């Protein structure tokens, strides 16, 4: 998909597939007056609700409903937008859409690509890139906390924080660059404009934005947890116990031997994707061996591995072997289950650093386990997440931080380095500008918008 592209009118069903009370067909284009006249006998008044029949080319009614007309630039896309709100059935909506495309042939109306409405909103400056991404994130939000933060991003809270920071960098850049034209002033530039304290202030505020963005990213991405352990230690029981009343989404991906079950639960609004795996043990059974190989593959991809053990044989040789094979760079939570079966005092000590004693059956210490998972995710409970962020944003913030730190070092080692100082500021400015889409390649834009749904 190319970005700096076309302005053909586009049309799509904007509501979710399936049946619904109402369904919406949306059309956007530079000028839809002609199309509106072709579709409806009544002249449409901008921003007025008209109740009208939606007729086919023979004048036969397909449906009837509300028509809204937004004249650009006062619309979602910044272009003219027509919205036909009819009954929300897939067949009737397809017919309405098809008719709009046929009637729109003289104006080149075509089917919209994924995210193309929002892409136009971005290209027409109705939204910046971080806000456009928040549109998708709001729709995809899997918890109320995530939805709240996505809405904050959509309203521009994140963009505003980033832009304000960038303004300060731009100001400093202007001062340096003006000075570069007068080399005799270079020597005392840093003093004269208090460049070092100014830069320190910017660096500190960037760090704060990064902390919030990290919270926002956790809220968006969640944590991938793999439950690993021998057969019968209670992996599936623990998964069920953690899921509790949560509206769990179970995805069963059929495999060759055994289904892989990912269940999404929420802790504190943070999505936790838990993978239940085939039990690990020595076996001659070929089918089981394949399952075990897949378990190890899951373990390699995990953010966190819960190494689950049975309290009755937690210390034996096989557990040691499993522990030794777990990847060193992945956080491992050693969890001993079924403490209800052993003497409550023998090993139910929860103060032990890296081992947690639980019972999936009685629920003992499950709250501790939940807290431990949030901890590993880097989530600070109670801390607000003022906006939702993506990994891309976090990388840009990190990159900007590195350039500012380097600028700071140049400032420390004083003279003759003002051009290096200026260059680092420029790079920091560009990194931050990528977040809001000021400096972004067409490839990246294509990637972002093509991951949207059609009609968005
Ligand atoms: P998996 O093979 O690791 O998934 O283990 P399951 O979850 O299928 O559990 C194996 C058996 O252990 C079942 O009979 C469970 O009811 C039992 N079990 C699981 N957790 C506990 C626990 O905390 N206490 C007790 N007493 N039994 C448990
Ligand atoms: Zn199981």
Automatic annotation (TrEMBL):
Residues annotated to bind K(+): 232, 251, 253, 256
GO molecular function, one term: hydrolase activity
Record keyword Endoplasmic reticulum present: no
Residue ranges the record marks as coiled coil: none
Binding site for Mg(2+): 236, 257
Family assignment from sequence similarity: Belongs to the TRAFAC class TrmE-Era-EngA-EngB-Septin-like GTPase superfamily. TrmE GTPase family.
UniProt-recorded name of the protein: tRNA modification GTPase MnmE
Record organism: Yanghanlia caeni
Gene: mnmE
């Amino acid at each position: 998909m190319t970005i700096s592209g076309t302005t053909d009118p586009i049309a799509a069903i904007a509501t979710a597939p399936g049946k619904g009370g109402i369904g919406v067909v949306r059309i956007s284009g530079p000028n839809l007056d002609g199309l509106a006249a072709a579709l409806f006998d009544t002249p449409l008044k901008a921003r007025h609700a008209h109740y009208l029949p939606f007729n086919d080319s023979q004048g036969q009614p397909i449906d009837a409903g509300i028509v809204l007309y937004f004249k650009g630039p006062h619309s979602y896309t910044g272009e003219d937008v027509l919205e036909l709100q009819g009954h929300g059935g897939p067949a009737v909506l397809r017919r309405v859409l098809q008719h709009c495309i046929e009637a729109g042939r003289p104006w080149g109306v075509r089917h919209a690509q994924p995210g193309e409405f929002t892409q136009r909103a971005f290209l027409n400056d109705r939204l910046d890139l971080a806000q456009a991404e928040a549109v998708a994130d709001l729709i995809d939000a899997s918890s109320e906390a995530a939805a709240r933060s996505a809405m904050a991003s959509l309203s521009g809270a994140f963009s505003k924080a980033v832009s304000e920071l960038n303004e300060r960098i731009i100001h400093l850049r202007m001062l340096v660059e003006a000075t570069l034209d007068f080399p005799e002033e270079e020597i005392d530039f840093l003093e004269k404009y208090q460049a070092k304290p100014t830069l320190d202030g910017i660096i500190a505020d960037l760090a704060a934005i990064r902390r919030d963005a990290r919270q926002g990213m956790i809220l968006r991405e969640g944590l991938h947890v793999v439950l690993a352990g021998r057969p019968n230690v209670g992996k599936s029981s623990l998964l069920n116990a953690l899921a509790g009343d949560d509206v769990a989404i179970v995805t069963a991906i059929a495999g060759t031997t055994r289904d892989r079950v990912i269940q999404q639960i929420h802790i504190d609004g943070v999505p936790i994707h838990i993978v239940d795996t085939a039990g690990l043990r020595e076996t001659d059974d070929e089918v089981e061996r394949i399952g075990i190989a897949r378990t190890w593959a899951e373990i390699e991809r995990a953010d966190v591995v819960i190494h689950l053990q049975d309290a009755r044989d937690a210390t034996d040789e096989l557990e040691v072997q499993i522990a030794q094979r777990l990847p060193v760079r992945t956080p491992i939570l050693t969890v001993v289950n079924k403490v209800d079966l052993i003497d409550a005092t023998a090993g139910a000590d929860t103060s032990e650093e890296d081992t947690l004693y639980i019972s999936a059956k009685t629920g003992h210490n499950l709250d501790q386990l939940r807290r431990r998972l949030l901890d590993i995710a880097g989530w600070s409970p109670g801390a607000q997440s003022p906006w939702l962020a993506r990994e891309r944003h976090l990388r840009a913030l990190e990159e900007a931080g590195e350039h500012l730190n380097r600028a700071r070092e140049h400032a420390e080692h004083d003279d003759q380095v003002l051009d290096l100082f200026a260059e680092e500021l420029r790079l920091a400015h560009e990194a931050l500008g990528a977040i809001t889409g000021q400096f972004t390649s067409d490839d990246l834009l294509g990637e972002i918008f093509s991951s949207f749904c059609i009609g968005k």
